[in-house]
# Entry
Amino acid sequence: MIHVQKTDAQGNAQILGNQQFDVEMTRAAQKGVILTTEKIVDPEEIAAEPERTTIPGFLVKAVVETPGGASPCSCHPYYGVDKTEMRRYMTLTQSQDGLREYLASTDETHAQDAVTK
Amino acid sequence: MGNRLASLPEHVIHAGNQMAVTLSRLIEDGENVFHGVNSPLPMVAIFLAKKRHAPNCSLIEVAGSVDPKPRFMPNSTADPELCHGAASMFYNPDMYDLFARGGVDMAFLGAAQLDKQGRANLSYIGDPFHPKVRLPGGGGGAVIMPQVKRTVIWRTVHDKRFLVPRVDFSTQSGSLSHVVTPIALFEKKPTGLEIASVHPGHSLDEVIEKTGFDLKRPSIVAQTPAPSAEELSALEELDPDGVRFSEFRV
# Structure
């Protein structure tokens, strides 16, 4: 599962900023890729700059529009690392009860319906 | 662009059109399809398939793109125009990686010599140390052909120099499924290549006579369906400059 800045509904995606090994992992995923994304855009917007589109739709099984989906990690240029939230996560997840408390407290309001390809 | 041959009488099907539609019909919807360099007929055939019966197939271009929208059909199949309007980029190292992972359904490859067992020669003719002809080599074919699910080989000349009893050198083999020539469509069976259908305007005897390896004489000879009016008009629209004819000797 990879979080990207933008993609079309077919999963032709642009991942910007620090990419780490995300692009390589899309190639290696044997059962395909699930994309979460800040924004689903029109295919024309993606096709206007192919050189930025490094994840091809044929590798992608599903696309989920999830603004803020990388938080508390970063998604350049939308948001940086949320250090307070990160510290809360690291503290709470020391125990099973803490993990449950953390999961119960996370904001799920951004979750959208998956776009079925 | 100078690709257009002298015009033919209306009832004669140009082999370029027959081959383009025959190649195109081998593509199934939803497949990941690849063509390499120097492959005008397969390039046009894949665009035709996407336009007609296989809109969801992904065209993986050797130019490094997926599903481009070129503003004109380029003569070179590695032309940068084949990156214009692409759905994504997919550069050659990624492409070879995808072949190795079994992620490509179909590849179109060429051959100078081909034998009944589906071995293709793109290396040399004659003595390896003093070759009569030094061929360009297989490019990525030796890696692609064993790893892709199906390979289709095409050549615009059908003769005994191409279809030989045994290749002088096996540059690449594996996964051959069909061969398309100007006069016939072959299918690879467990026993080797056999005639699947003969193109309109040609006979079984002609195919057998021009083929250098032994062929089973089928009891019923299937005829390759001629290009339909819809296919021909789609071809004209996609390729008005006649890039699909550029592999034929004028």
